[in-house]
Amino acid sequence: MAGSPGSKYYDKFLKYTVSIVNTDGAIILDDENFQLLLAIRDTSSLVDAAKKLHISYRKAWGKLKKLEQNLGFHLLVTSRGGQHGGKTELSDEGKTLIEAYEELNMRFNEEVKKLTKEFFRKINS
Question: Alpha carbon of 54 to those of 85, 86, 91: distances in Å?
């Protein structure tokens, strides 16, 4: 909520996203890719991660390959089927990327919340 009940901005909100881009401005890592990496971490399966996010396996795989190509390192460690099925996990670099991105988002959220309150306080007066 951006103001007190009855103020002209009561039902208005600030929305922002955090993305990592290359020098050409092309998005490398955004919230959608981040959610895919989190789903892989949580499910240990690319198939299950894609299902969780309601995207096709092919789309998820393509996103990961493009992300790895743009970043220059592998994000996943995979093992093939067998009796208990295959497994897809984040590489050490993938885990580090997730942790750093989570912290970045948390700190952005804290600061944006403060700035948003100040902004709406000014325009609601």
Answer: 21, 21, 23
Proportion of the chain above pLDDT 90, given as a percent = 51
As to burial, measured by CB atoms within 10 angstroms (0-12 exposed, 13-18 middle, 19+ buried), residue 111 is exposed
Give the model confidence (pLDDT) of 72-94 as tens digits: 999 998 877 656 666 888 999 99
Cβ–Cβ under 8 Å, residues 2 and 116 = yes
Q: How far apart are the first and last CA of the chain?
A: 15
Rounded distance between C-alpha atoms, residue 91 and residue 63, angstroms: 16
Buried b (16+ CB within 10 A) or exposed e, 46-81: beebbebbebeeeebeebbeebbeebeeebbeeeee
| CA–CA separation, 70 and 61 (whole Å) | 14
DSSP string covering 23-79:
TT--EEE-HHHHHHHHHHHHHS-HHHHHHHHT--HHHHHHHHHHHHHHHTS--EEEE
